[in-house]
Amino acid sequence: MEFMTGERETQVSTLREIFEEQPLGKEVAVEGAVHSIRDMGRIVFVTVRTRDGLLQTVFEKEEHPEFSGLKEAMCLRVQGRLRQEARAPRGLEIALEGLEILSAPAAPLPLPIDKWKLNTSLEARLNQRALALRHPRERAIFRIQEGIVRAFRDFLWEQGFTEVHTPKVGARSAEGGANLFRLSYFHKPAVLQQSPQLYKQMLVGVFDRVFETGPVFRAEKHNTKRHLNEYTSLDFEMGYIRSFRDVMEMETGFLRHMMEFLAQEYYQELKLLGVELPSVEQIPAVPFRQAKELVAKKYGRAVRSPQDLEPEEEQLIGEYFKEEYGSDFVFVTHYPSGKRPFYAMEDPEDPTVTLSFDLLFRGLEVTTGGQRIHEYGKLIEKMEARGMTEEGLEEYLDAFRYGMPPHGGLGIGLERMTMQLLGEENIREASLFPRDLSRLKP
């Protein structure tokens, strides 16, 4: 009989350890896959891909004839002496002394992942997603995306938030409308959630401050570069606020923390992708109607769609605040009541608008948020005015019937945030396995 202790001895080093400690002249061992092979005649360079990046190894054929027969995508355990080499990635390489093949591919790779840039179409990369992601630049996108989520979680923990996990199948959605994925749940009608909104609000009455990262579903028949039918939302809800501006300040604090965190922890990925992080010292905020008027005047564009922002308007608002204030971000506030959900609080000074906002990042909406109605009577009044019934919302309304603090929150689209941060043109680049109108696999 044996017992597990949680301790695991290993003689294998990570690249992070190697590059930080640089034990030159000493023997090190590394595990990874063959990323590329360059046979120079007498000398062979083998680049090994590990979870931390690429490492160059080298051997001479005459000294190690047993190393012949290596193929791209083989998984290896290699060992040798670490030495400096200016032409190698990050200036270090291993002179191989031992090599163990752990597995071998059954067929050649269909994508040229050893090239500096993966020069294939987006469609081809998505069809072969698991292989395309082996390319360092493709993988770096999702390392940075991981960093965004880590920063979100770490920042909110420091601010006293509790992480929660809410259901994705429910009887009713937070926003309703036609863009719902409907399904049968043991012969009962159900929907995939468009947002964790209702659960977040209910839990404010328990924890005061909550956050969640998880999938949301929108059955929108869009086929654009900015829409997905399943995406990841970074949500938080906070109680005892004085104004919806408290929510905007919290997001600004998160964004500042995120940029600092990425610069410190993901500098190699940022460098690989040539990304320059934007400054978030302060973010301007402009009312919805004023934003439309500003871009109409500056860019000679007629004001259309008075109840919402068109994609072109979002782009122009982003350009305006970049040109005038040097900001990549702008909060657009006080959206018309008719374009916001029933739980959005209306402005007491002008009930035609809500105490809500969108955050635009380089001309694209990446966040929607605002203050919510917290008084039971006003919530019922708003629902009745919209012709809504309480069916499916009974438990949600009970939370308000028995007292809720003033609160507000937001949802951030992770894929959109990643796309804009990295300067990608299509949101599918920032989704591991995107789901859209036509794609249901891999």
Automatic annotation (TrEMBL):
Record keywords: Aminoacyl-tRNA synthetase, ATP-binding, Cytoplasm, Ligase, Nucleotide-binding, Protein biosynthesis
Aspartate as annotated region, ranges: 197-200
Annotated PROSITE patterns: AA_TRNA_LIGASE_II
Entry EC no(s): 6.1.1.23
Complexes and interactors: Homodimer.
Any one GO BP annotation for this protein: aspartyl-tRNA aminoacylation
Domain of life from the UniProt record: Bacteria
Compartment(s) of residence: Cytoplasm
Organism lineage: Bacteria, Bacillati, Bacillota, Clostridia, Lachnospirales
Enzyme class: ligase
Gene Ontology MF terms in the entry: aspartate-tRNA ligase activity; aspartate-tRNA(Asn) ligase activity; ATP binding; catalytic activity, acting on a protein; RNA binding; transferase activity
Name of the gene this protein is made from: aspS
Residues holding L-aspartate: E175, R218, T368, R372
Domain Aminoacyl-transfer RNA synthetases class-II family profile intervals: 142-442
Protein family: Belongs to the class-II aminoacyl-tRNA synthetase family. Type 2 subfamily.
Described purpose of this protein according to its UniProt entry: Aspartyl-tRNA synthetase with relaxed tRNA specificity since it is able to aspartylate not only its cognate tRNA(Asp) but also tRNA(Asn). Reaction proceeds in two steps: L-aspartate is first activated by ATP to form Asp-AMP and then transferred to the acceptor end of tRNA(Asp/Asn).
Gene Ontology annotations for the cellular component aspect, listed alphabetically: aminoacyl-tRNA synthetase multienzyme complex; cytosol
Catalytic reactions of this protein: tRNA(Asx) + L-aspartate + ATP = L-aspartyl-tRNA(Asx) + AMP + diphosphate
Name the record gives this protein: Aspartate--tRNA(Asp/Asn) ligase
One Pfam family per UniProt: tRNA-synt_2
Protein residues bound to ATP: R218, A219, E220, R226, H227, L228, E365, G413, L414, E415, R416
